[in-house]
Amino acid sequence: MPIITNDINLVADSLMQHDVAAIPTETVYGLAGNIFSEKAIRRIYEVKQRPLFNPLIVHIHDVSEMEKVASAIPPLAQALAEKFWPGPLTLLLPKKDSVPDLITAGKDTVAVRVPNHPVTLSLLQQLPFPLAAPSANPFGSISPTTAEHVASYFKDEFPYILDGGACKKGIESTIIGFNEDGAIIYRYGSLAIEEIENITGPLQEYIRNEENPDAPGMLLRHYAPATTTILSSDIKKSIAENTGRKIGLMLFRDTYTNGQVTVVETLSASGSMEEAASNLYAAMHRLDHHQLDIIIAERFPDKGLGRSINDRLQRATHP
Ligand code: TXA
Ligand code: MG
């Protein structure tokens, strides 16, 4: 297992030696490497078993660093960066030639964000290069929101996991791109689109396309538990339809006490979507370890972070 540590210097040294390391962010843990090290970047793809056509997000420590990786930054992008960074927003920007094609999978845009986590911000400040970091899970499985989740996924593929506690937001960053007409939503995430639209006006929908997955976070099946999972708007009915099976429930705010279910995860007893989002993946991880026949997940109200949660649930339940 990789070693879980609080020692930022130790992890910085390891990254300087072209190793990869798991790092905390406010959304999910990332598997990080020096964007200019071909060795480190190849290792990220290898460790994740991630296809090379799936580009990586570049993490920087300040808005001012954006110009080091991007050029011709659209004014809307600048405005969003200034408003929401550090924070769970990734911007797709025209890339500088100096950014290796391996990072962007040959695209002419680069994905950039400033993560809002004190440990990783100080790590980034200390390093002379930005960090490319996809979520620190094997391709297709649930993203990790604790150092222990990361440790459970890997044997000794890389030396260190930098511990930053449980991720406060709990689902990945929202991804926004740009065209002549304005801003485009590529991936629903921890920043609610209503907040973004206050600045950009109505977002354009990215046209989903399995053949050309610009953002494989948009693949129909992704973020999936190993256990069969269904999405339900009528929990009682779904339970009745699965009598005799070992059922796990994942509910928004209700607690359900009925002999017919083996285990219940309530995401936010107080009905907070923020809290529900931060608990979502940890609850999926726990449910996945109960040897259940089926997980029944409750559909969320389709607004604010509820949209992002429904998006992840839909992908987790796609057959
Ligand atoms: O919250 C997050 O964004 C986390 C933390 C670690 O920062 N990272 C993350 O990375 O979720 P990853 O690799 O799991 O998801 C990145 C997504 C992928 O779906 C990828 O296809 C998309 O970003 N992406 C990256 N560069 C892109 C580009 N130039 N054009 C379109 N999509 C891009
Ligand atoms: Mg991911």
UniProtKB/TrEMBL annotation:
A Gene Ontology cellular-component term: cytoplasm
EC number, UniProt record: 2.7.7.87
SUPFAM superfamilies: YrdC/RibB
UniProt-annotated binding residues for L-threonine: T27, R113, A133, S173
Catalysis performed (reactions): L-threonine + hydrogencarbonate + ATP = L-threonylcarbamoyladenylate + diphosphate + H2O
Biological processes, Gene Ontology terms: regulation of translational fidelity; tRNA processing
Compartment(s): Cytoplasm
A molecular function (GO) term: tRNA binding
Predominant localisation class: cytoplasm
Record bears the keyword Isomerase: no
Entry keywords, A to Z: ATP-binding, Cytoplasm, Nucleotide-binding, Nucleotidyltransferase, Transferase, tRNA processing
Gene3D superfamilies in the cross-refs: DHBP synthase (3.90.870.10), Threonylcarbamoyl-AMP synthase, C-terminal domain (3.40.50.11030)
Domain called YrdC-like: residue spans: 5-191
Top-level EC class: transferase
Residues annotated as binding ATP: R50, N54, H59, T109, S135, S143, R187, Y223
Highest taxon of the lineage: Bacteria
Cross-referenced NCBIfam families: L-threonylcarbamoyladenylate synthase
Function text: Required for the formation of a threonylcarbamoyl group on adenosine at position 37 (t(6)A37) in tRNAs that read codons beginning with adenine.
Family note: Belongs to the SUA5 family.
Protein name as it appears in the record: Threonylcarbamoyl-AMP synthase
